[in-house]
Design brief:
By secondary structure, this protein is α/β, with parallel strands linked by helices. The chain has seven helices and ten strands. The strands form two sheets. The protein has a six-stranded mixed beta sheet with strand order 6-7-8-3-9-10, with helices on both faces. A hairpin with a 2-residue loop joins strand 1 and strand 2. Helix 3 runs parallel beside helix 5, helix 4 crosses helix 5 and helix 5 packs parallel to helix 6. It is globular and about 50 Å long.
């Protein structure tokens, strides 16, 4: 499903160029639950941004199914992202003045889905993550774990085939982290491919595979 071959990426600031990824080769099959680990500066966030088509790469080959990602226009990339990928972030990225249902429904607003239908679907996904009765609560009225569940429901509402989760348990205590991980495993059992970036070994141990990055290269897989 995901194929990366020889992916390289550098960032230039002023006269200095920093090579962050140095030839990453990676295959992820449909339906896998994969974690990416590595110390700070190993390139895991850069790799996740490339997987999510949020950042370009300098050289190499990245394909989702048979679709070559390099060379997509901004519009094509946005459309492909919207159809194919759901994102979950450490900081939840919820809109403070919108309630849980409105936050979950937001991706459908951008797809032009009518309000009644997007709210119906948002309630369905809130129920799926165990938060239907919190639909009309603002983010400020939710706990960290509840916010992350809302964020997961929002990632699921477009029915993507791939979920990218960047440190999804990073801002949570260990009990809540486990609840979020159990939810991701449940979603994975339904056939979704999930890639989790984490620095927590106990989270990585619950995935099918752990890819270790070091100095911009795959150390082991």
């Amino acid at each position: 499903m995901i194929q990366l071959t020889g992916i390289e990426k550098s960032y230039t600031t002023g006269a200095t160029s920093l090579k962050v990824l140095k030839g990453v080769d990676l295959n992820i099959k449909e339906g896998e639950l994969v974690s990416i680990m590595g110390s700070s500066g190993s390139g895991k966030s850069t790799l996740l941004n490339i997987l999510g088509i949020l950042d370009n790469y300098d050289s190499g080959d990245y394909r989702i199914d048979t679709q070559q990602i390099k060379g997509l226009s901004e519009t094509e990339a946005a459309r492909f992202r919207g159809q194919f990928i759901g994102f979950v972030f450490q900081s939840f990225n919820l809109i403070s003045f919108k309630n849980a249902m409105e936050n979950v429904a937001l991706p459908l607003y951008y797809k032009g889905v009518k309000k009644k239908e997007r709210n119906r679907r948002a309630l369905h996904y809130l129920e799926k993550v165990g938060l239907k009765e919190w639909a009309h609560h603002l983010p400020s009225e939710l706990s960290g774990g509840q916010k992350q569940r809302v964020a997961i429901a929002r990632a699921l509402i477009t029915e993507p085939r791939l979920i990218l989760a960047d440190e999804p348990t990073g801002a949570l205590d260990s009990k809540t982290s486990q609840e979020v991980m159990d939810l991701l495993k449940e979603i994975n059992k339904e056939g979704k491919t999930i890639v989790v970036v984490t620095h927590e070994r106990d989270i990585a141990e619950q995935t099918d595979r752990t890819i270790m990055l070091k100095d911009g290269m795959v150390l082991n897989d």
